[in-house]
Design brief:
alpha+beta, 10-stranded antiparallel sheet, 6 helices
Amino acid sequence: MIGKTLCRWVLCALLLFLFHECVAQKLIDLQRQKKQTLERISTTSQLIEEGSKSQAQNTRKLDLLTAQIETRNDLIKNINQQIELYNQEISQRVRSITQHEQELDTLLTQYAQFVRRTQFLQGRHEVLLQILASKNLSQMYRRIRFYREYLQYQHSQHETILALNQKLHNERDSLFDAQKRLVALRNEEYSSRNQLLSEKNLYNQELQRLLQKEKELKNTLLEDQKKVRELNLAINKLLEEEAEQNRKAKHDAQYKKLGKNFASNKGKLPWPILTGSIIRGYGQQESKLLKGIKTTSEGVDIAAKKNSVVRSVFNGKVTKVARIPGGNDVVIIRHGEFLTLYSNLVNLVVNTGDEVKAGQTLGTVYTEKNAAQGTLHFEIWQEFRSLNPKVWLHP
């Protein structure tokens, strides 16, 4: 019976171990994602603070606040996912502890019954008399063997009970730790929601401030709209040139493999800037201030600190380096059938034809004179089809 109980315990322990390993890996991924999200929140907060000093009549601060609210929501979602995992872990540990406590009670009861039934073997003097009272050598051998097996069985029972007791102690400690982390996460989630509310209030205040200057802003917004269209045309021309160049090139198995590897990393690509915030999203964007003013972008604009380093998001080959009006230096990197495009760069350290690795420096973000921050324009293409970079980058 003890052996069956021990086997059942080992099986339960193995299943519990596999469950906790799976949960632990998910928590590690979420905590890594949370760290990156907090870094983006910190960077955006600094950019917002710098924007508050100037109070310029533009929408950059409003865009940064929008990005901050979105990132804060990502953080709250991350925390809630961790809370859910800890709730699952705690429920599993409580069930496991309850089951193991019942099994330990059963073991202790069986052990007590066993001791009562074999009280005649408890004293060495009585055991010796039993052995010496044997009628013949065969009986003496059987009694000695029985006593030896009894001692082994008693020792095995005792060790099993001690082991189960220690495991229960460890489980209770782990449960207590998980409960503490859960409480800490709930407090953090509450604090994050308060910060989100504060940021929404700041957004509304900035929106109202800009709406009072609607006439002055209209010309600026229309000019921005024009610049975005011109930038899109210039980038499309570069992409067409690169596509023509790619059609003439010979492709080997490595080309297909690189594209396949790129595709398998959807949602896992590192950001081209270590800490930044997306202030203009992919696709059609409508002005928050003026109805009817829309811009369409094939990529995203990422606000970053002055002179932020821009890095390649994946292994590939630089197939195009050019300078375009309003976009400064542009770098196009091919990853098999996929392309990544980095615009508004200066101080380039790569040239056409260079093989680059993920994380390798390409240049720095252009920053206007006397400005404290710049903007990187980033696009991802699959041949002639643009893709939303946000769903490809690691959250």
